């Protein structure tokens, strides 16, 4: 009986390691087929992340932007890291993702993080500028997944209503 349980547990651990290895290889090589599968999976996880994203205590922020062609307003959950008065974002899929193309076309967006809303302007930066602002763990994750593009969301000047 116990041997059977150990085999099941070992099989599940092996399956998890294979999945993680495939994820790392897909992200490092930017394999388009693999990235398409991850994007489909993210559509499900993003809905769950949006429940508390941007609120105090959440590890996820929300960037609000407008479609560059449609004019449709969108909200996208993203992970942000402090960089002085600004915010730093990993771009594991590169700078050609739709939400970033929308933000860059508009020249600005609204970022909700920790219960506060900020007007921000995008600036793509490389690892030399970004990595020193990350913890050792986050630098390791960025290197492991081959992240070479980062986004700095610079806070815009204070506007009426107290948002920045």
From TrEMBL:
Keyword Transmembrane helix: yes
Membrane spanning stretches: 6-25
Keyword list, A-Z: Membrane, Transmembrane, Transmembrane helix
Top-level taxonomic group: Bacteria
Pfam family, one: F420H2_quin_red
Matching InterPro entries: F420H2_quin_Rdtase (IPR004378), Split_barrel_FMN-bd (IPR012349)
Gene3D superfamilies on file: Electron Transport, Fmn-binding Protein, Chain A
Protein's name in the database: Deazaflavin-dependent oxidoreductase (Nitroreductase family)
One Gene Ontology term of the molecular function aspect: oxidoreductase activity
